[in-house]
Specification:
The complex is a heterodimer of chains A (about 450) and B (about 425). Chain A contains 10 helices and 26 strands. By secondary structure, chain A is an alpha+beta fold. Chain A has 2 domains: about 220 residues, PmbA/TldD superfamily (PmbA/TldD fold); about 230 residues, no CATH class. Chain A is globular, with a radius of gyration of 24 Å. Chain B contains 9 helices and 21 strands. In chain B, strands 9, 14, 15, 16, 17, 18, 19, 20 and 21 form a 9-stranded mixed sheet that branches. In chain B, strand 20 and strand 21 form a beta hairpin. The longest helix of chain B has 18 residues. Classes of the chains: A alpha+beta (about 450), B alpha+beta (about 425). At the A-B interface, strand 2, strand 3, helix 2, helix 3 and strand 7 of A face strand 2, strand 3, helix 2, helix 3 and strand 5 of B.
């Protein structure tokens, strides 16, 4: 169902309504030790209506994309709002609006490849690993692509058609060393379909060699010492720090339900070196990993300045939080499936690059760690966070020393950011992540390297 | 529905599949949401998921769609066969064998919306009266699932389940401070129960109110950790997945490769898969690899009875699939009262929630202790912050000092508390 079709269904009346038709399409290919253990495609499509009447939200959805079904879905959504409002009263302000209209489609313009070509690439990479590194206990190569296509109209004038794809490859290796399994991996994902994101066979082979080199180094890995330690967080970790530790605490729904960030607006929460932004779609002329020009409430999406030169400046909003806090809309409302309500979600959360060089940052650490690759991360409303560290090195007297075993780092983000002494001048986006908050959603996160003090979960 | 599934299965075979399976899951849910302390959002979801799997000449492919018109299904079949032909032959790919046809029925298929609204408003009133300083969101959902699995070997299962699920997240505020966020989730056979009184939720919220003010532990040390039942479940699940599940076997790194009938964990630990247990409100009846989920003891007094591996892994590694992935965990209670367990701790932590990665392939793990307490001289002292716990889940589960008499049943699983000694506990 296209925008023009959806508009015909917008019900008359004083209440707010969203209508959406959405399809998510994905492909997943997995090779494990030369076997194609996963060869699957999936699609999920449907329509939904969400209404806001007298302070109550009602929503309904259906897999059936037809006029009759849309009428039923709208009637059910209205009924759901009324079911709640029949029991309660709410004396709220009207929802704010900053509607936008547009089409933002990132279909590839190149000739489409078939499944065969994609599997052949994985087979070739697998064969390269097997031939060059036969001593491995296990090896894997996988491809994943998710396309999210949405048509949305809102009763306050929003209208959009978007298609946002994300694709990439992950490669991993495992070896047993003294009876202990050791793994190392890397991934290359970005906004775009296979044809736009897949790199050359040669590129992946070079990366395989690097993965193997790091895997061999990991045989000598040591447990990091636990406690408070001076670290250089590499760009991938700085990105997850921006997302997990600060981003989540500054989502306005979390602020409204107790986040400590609600106490800090316009206060110093970080070193003056730190500027942290949730970028809507474009950074310095380049499209970000998850470009959002219009959000799922039809709102024009704008960059949200969260921390500017160390001062907490703002929160991310949907219509309801902006209404309750009497603050401007930011365009952060997104839903994952056709049947999901838009929640406040980050888009491309990043720490702005500084002026230092990574080499001089490492050289400035006498006894600490350089943390390169993250595992999963979580954060709390107190801004206390954790995330796994999958790859890193000791720094001794300004030089990289032994690799470290996997561990967890943690801290109170608003304390940690005050310890930042240096910020590197580069920016790396990570486009693999899904953020979980009732629903999953693809997010982008980015960062330079930062020098700071964190708590490490170590054993030595 | 089942007749339509059989037609699709026949079509897959007629198109050329050597073997095929069809799985349909239809879901209807009614969701009642408290947001910003108001029952302000009601959502109705109707969804379908049809998953087709084929094998031909040892090549396989899967497709999953939610549009069930004939033309859409025909298109999906064509796509799947094209993808399959691009695949790599693998004799380990298979479908489950013929099994006795079974149908499961449970729960009320229709939601009782009025009762759900009454219970959610009752929750709001209870929270206002007992915990006015607590910010929270909560969701009560009536879920009705119809699942059908058929395959060309003759497997034939239908599962009609309905139940309520309830989840709540909460944070306490006092002046300009807030506690760590905690949560709970449960499954219920019906909604006509006082939600705050279920599965220790009220106690977790009460604890949360005193976690507004926390302190780091006095020093880093090696001590005892009492795992809250949810953390026991998570740790045991982590052991199964990272140490003896499908991935360690497929990646040639299982450290217990030939251990059926052998002691692998502490003799106090007995873990069952119990989909028929009356105390559970919901259970997975059909496994992902097409078997009826079985009641079985996975680990009996520390002795391994079944590997939790799927059919593909068993075929690939020349093993026998005897159980598959368990999902309805029932860990047997021990003989130590929780109060005595706490009294026995000279210096340690009551671990209520953990925030961190899962264990790596060697079993190493580290995480932050959340909503947790410092214990000294047999007494709970104070709620803690910025405390990390590190160790190895295999070592932990091979060295359990005590298991509690008390268990927590959240409708999905049932677990006691574990006391694990000699754990690394560090502060910033």
């Amino acid at each position: 169902m296209q925008i023009s079709d959806l508009k015909k269904f917008l019900p008359a009346g004083a209440f707010y309504t969203e209508l959406k038709a959405q399809e998510n399409r994905s492909m997943s290919l997995n090779m494990l030790n030369g076997s194609l253990t996963g060869n699957s495609v999936s699609s999920s499509s449907g329509i939904m209506c969400r209404t806001y009447m007298d302070g109550f939200w009602g929503m309904a959805s259906s897999v059936t994309n037809s006029s009759e079904s849309m009428h039923k879905v709208i009637a059910k959504a209205v009924q759901n709002s009324r079911t709640l409002s029949a029991h309660m009263m709410f004396d709220g302000a009207p929802l704010p609006a900053n509607p936008a209209q547009g089409e933002h489609l990132y279909f590839t313009k190149k000739p489409k490849t078939g499944t065969n070509e994609r599997i052949e690439l994985l087979k070739a990479l697998d064969a390269y690993i097997l031939e060059k590194y036969p001593e491995l206990n296990a090896r894997g190569a996988s491809f994943y692509q998710l396309d999210m296509e949405k048509h949305i109209v809102t009763s306050d004038g929003g209208a959009m058609h978007t298609m946002t794809p994300r694709a990439g490859v992950t490669i991993w290796m495992k070896v047993m060393h003294e009876g202990v399994p050791i793994m190392h991996w890397d991934y290359w994902y970005g906004m775009g379909e296979y044809e736009d994101q897949i790199k050359s066979y040669k590129f992946y082979c070079e990366q395989i060699d690097l993965i193997h080199e790091e895997l061999m180094k990991k045989k000598a890995a040591v447990h990091p010492r636990g406690g408070s330690v001076e670290c250089i967080l590499g760009p991938r970790l700085a990105g997850i720090l921006a997302h997990e530790a600060i981003g989540h605490t500054t989502e306005a729904d979390r602020v409204l339900t107790g986040s400590i960030a609600g106490e800090y607006l316009n206060q110093a929460v970080a070193s003056e070196l730190i500027t942290l932004i949730d970028v809507a779609h474009t950074w310095q002329g380049e499209i970000c990993p998850i470009p959002v020009f219009i959000d799922d409430e039809g709102t024009a999406a704008e960059d949200t300045m969260i921390i500017e030169n160390g001062i907490l400046k703002g929160y991310m909003h949907n219509k309801e939080s902006a209404m309750l806090m009497n603050l401007p809309l930011t365009g952060n409302a997104r839903g994952y499936q056709y049947s999901d309500e838009p929640l406040i979600r980050m888009r491309n959360t990043m720490i702005k690059p500084g002026v230092s060089k990574l080499e001089e940052m490492i050289a400035s650490v006498e006894d600490g760690y350089y943390l390169i690759e993250s595992g999963s991360g979580q954060a709390d409303k107190t801004s206390e966070f954790m995330f796994g560290v999958a790859h890193g090195y000791e720094i001794k007297n300004g030089k990289l020393a032994r690799p470290i075993k996997e561990c967890t780092i943690s801290g109170v983000a608003f304390d940690l950011l005050k310890t930042v002494q240096m910020v590197s001048d580069d920016l790396v986006w990570v486009a693999t992540g899904f953020c979980g908050k009732k629903q999953m959603i693809p997010v982008g996160m980015g960062g330079p390297a930062i020098k700071c003090t964190v708590t490490m979960g170590g054993r030595s | 529905m089942k007749a339509q599934m059989q037609i699709i299965l026949d079509k897959l075979l007629a198109t050329g599949a050597d073997k095929a399976s069809v799985r349909l899951v239809n879901t209807h849910s009614e969701e009642f949401n408290i947001i910003y302390k108001r029952l302000s959002f009601m959502r109705t979801v109707e969804s379908s998921r049809l998953t087709l799997f084929v094998i031909k000449d040892q090549r396989s492919a899967t497709i999953s769609v939610n549009q069930l018109e004939d033309a859409e299904i025909d298109k999906a079949i064509t796509t799947m066969f094209t993808n399959m032909e691009s695949g790599v032959p693998d004799p380990a790919m298979d479908i489950s064998p013929a099994q006795e046809a079974q149908t499961w029925e449970s729960g009320d298929k229709l939601p009782n919306s009025q009762t759900a609204i009454i219970r959610m408003n009752e929750l709001i009133a209870d929270m206002r009266q007992k915990f006015p300083q607590v910010e929270y969101d909560a969701t009560l959902t009536h879920n009705s699932h119809y699942s059908c699995y058929l395959n060309s070997n003759g497997a034939d299962f239908v599962d009609n389940q309905a139940y309520y699920s309830f989840s709540i997240t909460f944070t306490s505020k006092q002046d300009n401070r807030c506690s760590s966020m905690n949560y709970s989730f449960i499954a219920l056979r019906n909604s006509d129960v006082r939600l705050l009184e279920q599965a220790n939720i009220e106690e977790l919220i009460r604890q949360n109110t005193e976690q507004v003010i926390t302190r780091p532990i006095p020093e880093s040390f090696i001590g005892d950790v009492i795992f809250y039942p949810l953390q026991v479940c998570r740790t045991v699940d982590g052991f199964l997945e990272s140490q003896i599940g499908s991935f360690p076997f497929l990646s040639n790194s299982c450290k217990f490769p030939d251990h059926i009938g052998k002691q692998v964990l502490d003799s106090k630990l007995t873990l069952k898969n119990a989909p028929d247990y009356k105390g559970f409100a919901v259970a997975a009846r059909i496994t992902d690899d097409g078997f009826a989920s079985q009641n079985a003891t996975v680990i009996e007094n520390g002795v391994l009875r079944h590997y939790p591996i799927n059919l593909y892994t068993a075929n690939k590694c020349n093993m026998k699939r005897t159980l598959g992935d368990p999902s309805s965990y029932l860990i047997e209670a021990g003989d130590t009262a929780l109060a005595d367990m706490i009294k026995s701790v000279e210096k340690g932590v009551l671990l209520v929630r953990q925030s961190g990665d899962s264990a790596n392939s060697d079993g190493d793990i580290s995480f932050v202790a959340k909503n947790s307490y410092y214990i000294e001289d047999g007494k709970i002292q104070y709620p803690i912050s910025e405390t990390m716990i590190a160790g190895n889940i295999v070592n932990w589960l091979q060295n359990i000092r005590a298991i509690s008499r008390e268990t927590l049943n959240n409708g999905y699983w049932q677990c006691p508390y574990f006391l694990i000694p000699e754990v690394n506990i560090s502060r910033k």
